[in-house]
Amino acid sequence: MERKVFGYFRCRTIDPRGMIQQICRCRNIISLQFLFEEKSWKSYRYDSVAECREVLMNGVNIMMKSFSMCGLEESQKVFNDIYSQYVYNQDCYKSNYFAHFINLLISRGFDYEMNPDLMNKSTGQTASIAKEIKAQKEKIVLDEFDKFYDVFKVEEEKIKNKYRDYEMLCMKEPYDNGRNEFFREYEEENKIDWSFSCGKVLQVEEKIMTWDEWKKKLKRMYCKFGPVYDEINKLKHDLVDEYFSEVFADVIHLLCIPMEQIEECKDLITDPKLLVRYFNMKRYFFDPKMTQKDPLMEHISKRQDFDIKSFSSVSNQIIFLHKLKKAVGIDERTDIEMKEVMSEETADRLWEEYTSMRRIRSKGNAFLEPAGVKKNIIVMYKDLFGVDIINTKRTTKKNKDTGKLDKKTLYSMNTEYYEKMRKVYFNSCEEEYEPEEVEDE
User: Fold this and answer.
1) Could you give the CA distance from residue 277 to residue 295 in angstroms, rounded to a whole number?
2) What are φ and ψ of residue 412, in 5° steps?
3) For 224, left (φ over 0), alpha (ψ -120 to 50), or beta?
4) Left, alpha or beta for 249 (phi > 0: left; psi -120 to 50: alpha)?
5) Are the C-beta atoms of 175 and 209 separated by less than 8 Å?
6) I want to staple 7 with a disulfide (CB 3.0 to 4.6 A). Which of 34, 162, 285, 328 is the partner?
7) How far is residue 308's CA from residue 441's CA, in Å, rounded to a whole number?
8) 155-187 b/e (C-beta count within 10 Å ≥ 16 → b)
9) CA distances, 140 to each of 23, 79, 144, 252 (Å)
10) Is there a contact between 280 and 318 (Cβ–Cβ < 8 Å)?
């Protein structure tokens, strides 16, 4: 099929080769137009594949002091060479997505004509487009929710009434061994998933229950993970599949988002990157407090992957963040206020590990200065948990030595953002959610 093709590239996930591959899914292109959000250049990190491999292997050697996952020596060597070439290529492409895309386009036989008027600096149009797309997605979720909610409330009330009727019947007809058949027939006829008659709930050694015992048992129907809760949850699950787009429904199921949180969590439902940030927060902040153990080290140890990839994994970056905070006296995971200055020896060791793990343009050791440590802790928090995890406030403070006002930037945990994610976490826990006290300086 002959057709015109338009490509819109945000330069966030795929490299220029992937962009060309997407375009060429149309085999008979009449004309090609494209819009890039990012046309600026960035400094590259590696001068050669050999340098890239050396840096990556340095990181592997650091990590292997703690653990190693893959024991296949020959396979490791082959993979390390291939992976080093891949990382080097990605480093090249990231230096200028647009220029590399043009070069690849020409090499594939496209006749490229550049319009200088369209190559001017961005006026912010792409940013407004991204915001508009985000708003449209969230509106779709809310529109689907409105349709869902009308049906859900009607069906939910039917379920509640069914169990209320059953409760009233039980209050009129106290349990004894002679009433088993009566209850069984009623439960089957009305699809009551709560059986007094078959002994799922009652074990009273053939004794007739007192009224207080009876009422206590009936109340258990309405508790979390009781029959009413389970049946309403199943109703919600089925209706979510029916009324929400498949990708949105999958996220709602995955996070067990209740109806009252749909509007609050619309960004989490529609934004895959924010969803990744949530799971990073889950592993760093929430799981350790609930399980009384840190699952990250175990996760990396058991993960069946090559060492050269595991070193730069998100899990290992979170582990490094915890080490960096420990080195400046920060014990609490929700605390970002440094308590002490790390030694020069520790600064050199951690900087070597940090620069092997992440793309850093700075040539000097930023960890030798407290301001450099604080800055990189903030950077890691935003990268791993989302930019909204940190509140930033710019102020001035009088310098005692000069008498002048010095500019100062204050950072603190965004408790509202943190609690929002924590509330989502508790949706899949047996424990009830209660707000946590987080330092907000």
Assistant:
1) 17
2) -150, 160
3) beta
4) alpha
5) yes
6) 34
7) 39
8) ebeebeeebeebbeebeeeebeeeeeeebeebb
9) 28, 44, 6, 14
10) yes
The letter for the amino acid at 395 is: T
CA-CA distance, 11 to 130, in Å (whole number)?
13
Strand 28-36 relative to strand 2-9, pairing? parallel
- Give just the sign of the alpha carbon dihedral 59, 64, 67, 71: positive
Report the pLDDT value the prediction gives residue 198, as an integer from 0 to 100: 39
Q: How far apart are the first and last CA of the chain?
A: 61
Closest by alpha carbon to 65, among 356, 347, 419, 331?
356
A 10 A CB-CB count for 321 gives: 20
pTM over 0.85: no
Q: Which residues of the chain have pLDDT under 50?
A: 177, 196-207, 440-441
d(CA 247, CA 141): 11
| Residue 391: CB atoms within 10 Å | 15
Q: Residue 202: its pLDDT value, please?
A: 43
DSSP character string of 53-89: HHHHHHHHHHHTTT------HHHHHHHHHHHHHHHHH
Query: What whole-number distance in Å separates Cα of residue 80 and Cα of residue 146?
Result: 52
CB distance 434 to 440 below 8 Å: no
SS3 (DSSP) at 295: helix
Which among 151, 147, 129, 140 is positioned nearest to 247, based on CA atoms? 140
Distance CA 110, CA 103 (A): 10
For 287, residues 6+ apart whose C-beta sits below 8 A from its C-beta are 294, 295
pLDDT number for residue 297 = 57
Q: What is the pLDDT of residue 227?
A: 80
Paired tokens of 427 = 């949706």
Write down the pLDDT at residue 346: 93
